[in-house]
Amino acid sequence: MKCPYCNHPDTRVVDSRPAEDGSSIRRRRSCDACGKRFTTYEKVETIPLIVIKKDNNREQYDRGKIEKGILQACYKRPVSADKIRKTVEQVETDIFNREEKEISSSVIGEIVMHKLKDLDEVAYVRFASVYREFKDVNTFMDELKNILDKKGQES
């Protein structure tokens, strides 16, 4: 494993344990050249997942797009980086547990929205407004009313 700090080609494993998600191995590594430490995660390589976009184009699954969408939705919200990371992992686990070779981007969007609803309601509305392409204020207000009605029923 190459050191991300000095690019030295050899590093050594200092500690190895199962990651919190249970589906990967967390390894603490140390670079003998610069002395810095860093963490890597090792996962089983699977058959690439293909995402079917709205226009029916297909592209390879990219975890970074889910991370980016969730980070944007949670921008300036009181949500810790750890909770965001766990949410991304939960979304990814839900996607891969379907054991499908292809998945629609709309299914991924619904999974993300479901997880964001539990994480932070403002982040959920932000994501939903982009994902569902609210055309006007009334559509936006309808979604807010749905959230408020559900909150009222829970009380």
TrEMBL record:
Belongs to the NrdR family. Its cofactor is Zn(2+). A zinc finger (unnamed) spans 3-34. Binds 1 zinc ion. Negatively regulates transcription of bacterial ribonucleotide reductase nrd genes and operons by binding to NrdR-boxes. The gene is nrdR. This is Transcriptional repressor NrdR. The lineage of its organism: Bacteria, Bacillati, Bacillota, Clostridia, Lachnospirales. InterPro entries: ATP-cone_dom (IPR005144), NrdR-like_N (IPR055173), RNR_NrdR-like (IPR003796). Keywords: ATP-binding, DNA-binding, Metal-binding, Nucleotide-binding, Repressor, Transcription, Transcription regulation, Zinc, Zinc-finger. It comes from the Bacteria.
